[in-house]
Amino acid sequence: MRSLAAAHPPIALGPLDGRYRAAVAPLVDFLSEAALNRERVHVEVEWLIHLTRQGAVPGVRRLTDEEIRQLRDIPVQFDVADIAELADIEHETVHDVKAVEYYLKRRLPQIVGTADAPGLSELVHFACTSEDINNLSYALMVQGATRRVWLPKASALVEQIATMARELADVPLLAHTHGQPATPTTMGKELAVLAYRLRRQLQRIERAEYLGKINGATGTYGAHVAAVPTTDWVEVSQLFVEGLGLQWNPLTTQIESHDWQSEIYSDIARFNSILHNLATDVWTYISMGYFAQSRGQGTVGSSTMPHKVNPIRFENAEANLELSNGIFDVLCRTLVNSRLQRDLTDSSMQRNIGTAYGHSLLAIDNVSRGLAGLDAVPAKMAADLDANWEVLGEPIQSAMRALGARGVPGMEQPYERLKELTRGRRISEADLREFVRGLGLPNTVEARFLELTPETYVGLAPQLVRFL
Fold first, then answer.
1. Could you give the CA distance from residue 99 to residue 84 in angstroms, rounded to a whole number?
2. CATH homologous superfamily for 133-378?
3. Is the pLDDT of residue 424 over 90?
4. Mean pLDDT in the chain?
5. Which residues pair with 211 in a beta bridge?
6. Concatenated DSSP letters for 267-320?
């Protein structure tokens, strides 16, 4: 048997880089290993520029505008050739961040001139520990992936759900609590509940903080002060971090504590969980016949049963949401812990951030495509409502309670009387009408309940959708 491991181009080990590549490809620009190295180059370039602009190291000349433009063009033009070059350097250094430092130093003579390059090159990675570069790189990567890829896709899905809720606001639906027929609602209102929950999580994620630090090997500015004691390194650090569009963290060990990462991953995981709830609910509605999978399917439902159209989009979403949350859960619990001033567990953990985002993004894509292929079936919902007249026991006994509280005679034990009529058995419209006529209700109340049907007993459900 030939080895597949030797195939070229390489065969993907996991589904995100294989079968599902198209759905998650935008994340490669932010959360891949190559994106990490590009962001490291970006941070190192900006640190060099910042040091010269701030005059942090006396005696070093300021970079010209043209030199700054050329330096900033390095990460902008970062491509496969640069990835390969960095890999070659890392093969020698056996250190990824040191490889980035050497990679930049190779380019300085062409930008600042051979005379100034030796001096200026010493400011590349000046007073930095690897984590000064890594924590800022990851913050920028996660910020970009969240704001530019994940949030737009998630927001579009929530708006898609909200649009369905508005369209189905008036379509009556037999509710099921504990799996049993319950007070009717509308399909739109039930979708609105899920859209509202998902939107709240998006609002939290939109407000997320992305923290960063650049303060040395144990967060003390020790090397900075020892090298140049006259510079206000705290101010230099704060201005640099905030200049990258991040929130400055003034108190850290060697690592930025990653609490902000745990917070945002927890919020995304909660969004995932609510979306999982939607996927299982819609799957159930499909199985009950309340939705028909009629549009844009074009798939083989079953390899042996021609009539089937399986709700695979929602099942796929469930699996991917569970995988995403499993990874996010480990990230949340692990990243907030570090032995004393540093251990390396976070380094391996953070390389899986893209996988967590990828499975979530894939699930969002599947739910969106699944919903787009659905048509509501109001006739089936109406048929189920018409088969469950016993659900009107609730409003009748509630009205009797209100009448009894006002002193209307004959309204005693309303719950018990409706329980005797309805519990454990189906009743017909005729049964209910006969029962209502025998209650001795005031004429206006009796007339109201003689007109009430399971289909019209939806309370304020249609109006509640407006809260979206």
1. 12
2. Fumarase/aspartase (Central domain) (1.20.200.10)
3. no
4. 94
5. 247
6. HHHHHHHHHHHHHHHHHHHHHTTSEEE-SS--S-S-SS-TT----HHHHHHHHH
Q: Tokens at residue 184, please?
A: 């009717």
Give per-residue pLDDT as tens, 178-198.
999 999 999 999 999 999 999
> What is the mean pLDDT of the segment spanning 321-325?
98
Q: Which residue from 144, 206, 209, 360 is spatially nearest to 271, judged by alpha carbons?
A: 360
| Position with higher pLDDT, 215 vs 396 | 215
Does the structural domain 388-461 have CATH classification 3.40.190.10? no
From-to residues of CATH 1.10.40.30 in the chain = 388-461
Question: And the tokens for 222?
Answer: 């020790």
143 vs 210: CA distance, rounded Å: 7
For domain 24-130, say whether CATH 1.10.275.10 is its number: yes
Outline which parts of the chain fall under CATH 1.10.275.10. 24-130
Contacts (Cβ under 8 Å, ≥6 apart) of 90? 96, 99
Smallest Cα–Cα separation from 60: which of 110, 105, 122, 8? 122
- pLDDT, tens digit, 9 for 90 and up, residues 265-320: 999 999 999 999 999 999 999 999 999 997 555 555 555 544 557 899 999 999 99
- Are 189 and 462 in contact by the 8 Å Cβ rule? The answer is yes
Q: Is 114 helix (H, G, I), strand (E, B) or coil?
A: coil
Both tokens assigned to 81 = 């050739």
The segment(s) of the chain belonging to CATH 1.20.200.10 are 133-378
Instruction: Summarize the confidence of residues 200-214 as an average pLDDT.
Output: 98
Active site positions, annotated: 178, 302
Q: Look at 440 and 260; give whichever has higher pLDDT.
A: 260
Given a cut of 90, whether residue 321 has pLDDT beyond it is: yes
What percentage of the chain exceeds 70 in pLDDT? 97
Indicate the pTM of the whole model.
0.93
What is the C-alpha separation between 58 and 54, in angstroms, rounded? 10
DSSP 25: G
Long-range contacts of 72-80 (CB under 8 A, 24+ apart): 72/45, 72/46, 74/41, 74/45, 74/104, 74/107, 75/38, 75/39, 75/41, 75/42, 75/45, 78/34, 78/37, 78/38, 78/41
Residue with token string 């990462």: 261
Angle at the Cα of 230 from the Cα atoms of 226 and 236, rounded to 5 degrees: 90
Dig out the tokens for 360 from the structure: 């979530």
CB count in 10 Å sphere of residue 269: 22
> Considering Cα of 339, then 345, then 347, then 350, what sign does the dihedral take?
negative
